[in-house]
Amino acid sequence: xxxxxxxxxxxxxxxxxxxxxxxxxxxxxxxxxxxxxxxxxxxxxxxxxxxxxxxxxxxxxxxxxxxxxxxx
Length: 72
Description:
Layout: H1 3-9, E1 13-23, E2 26-34, E3 40-50, E4 53-60, H2 63-69
Antiparallel strand pairs: 1-2, 2-3, 3-4
């Protein structure tokens, strides 16, 4: 089960894409969701691309850190 599916089963909703920025072959993607208690949870990933395919992925609990990781 994916992390997103696990969150949905726990009552998370209102998913929002907050930011997408890239440099070279790396792209930072930041998103958020409404947690069951009503707070907004945030997460990000840095994707490494090759020939328009994702060949690597790293999770970041801080969207700001993910954006810095790609130099954005």
